[in-house]
Amino acid sequence: MHRSSFRLRFLSGCLLSFAVALCASIPVPSGTGSVKAGPPMLEPRSGHSATLLADGKVLIAGGMRRNQDFYKSSELYDPTTGKFERAGDMTMARVGQAGILLPSGKVLIAGGWTGPGCTDSAELYDPATRRFTPTAKMTARRGNPSATLLSDGDVLIAGGGDRDTPGGISLAEVFHPATLSFQAIRPMHYARISHTATLLKAGRVLIIGGRGETLATAAELYDPKTRKFSETGRLITARYKHTAGLLPDGRVLIAGGSDERDWKGKLSSAEIYDPATGKFSATAAMNDARFKLPDTSVTLNSGKIVIAGGSREVEVFDPATGKFELAAGQMPDPRHFMTETKLRDGSVLFAGGYPNGDLGTAETWLFRP
Prior knowledge:
369 residues, Neuraminidase, 4-stranded antiparallel sheet
């Protein structure tokens, strides 16, 4: 009896040890989400715009194959078929343009680099006809400006660079869809390019970082009621080519980017802006230093924020813990100037970008929470 009991305990222990070893050898899916390869675009692109349309498709427009090889073409990603299809051509080839969905369902394409310099031209894409038509010109030439859809349906366009001041400009303007016109407003307090612009819950726009003659640590707020910019807190770390995302409680996460050294100055640090106090506070760093990120990071339905680009890894910031977690799976290369678009089902499309050279890729990836 004693011997049988001993054998039973021995066998149970062996089975338990085997089960533990087996479980340890099986990859456990990340609760943060996973990234896997998606369908290829029709053209390799970086520096393009990606805009979610009212019907759930994504308009991919412009961008470049490599330096000085820019596209007029555009294409549509259809999540229902999982494929890309051709859309119309823009009126000119451009990279680093703004692409904003208007309340009408049309897409405003504005500015961008067209060669040695940039343009003040703008056009509208109509999903019903898949055509681009010219509209009024902006009040200033801009490459890589920020563009923010305001609560009233107007669009704030701020900063960017031009041929004469590649370090950034302070000029700002508003596009009025009702009249199809641009109106110059008072400039920002600082010249900026590669900054971020985040629409806050109260309707104001937070402008962070970027570069003029030097990197900007000062942040500012645009108030649509007064059409003026006012200074607010200062970044803990000066940065540009970073990303920003709106947290569920109205605060703003700022992550990554670089200092004046660009490739040698990539940042893993992150901080949070609180509109209630107008101040920035440090939060946990990312797992990887990265820059040349999408201007706006996607906020998932869970309230977590996805950080992608500039690294093979995809990271997710959890507001509950204040930490970044790695998603399961990797992209084959760190992609710079790729786009990040939240789809209707809550997944996220990462498209294009380039690794450490300047040759863009047609590859895409899908992140699923």
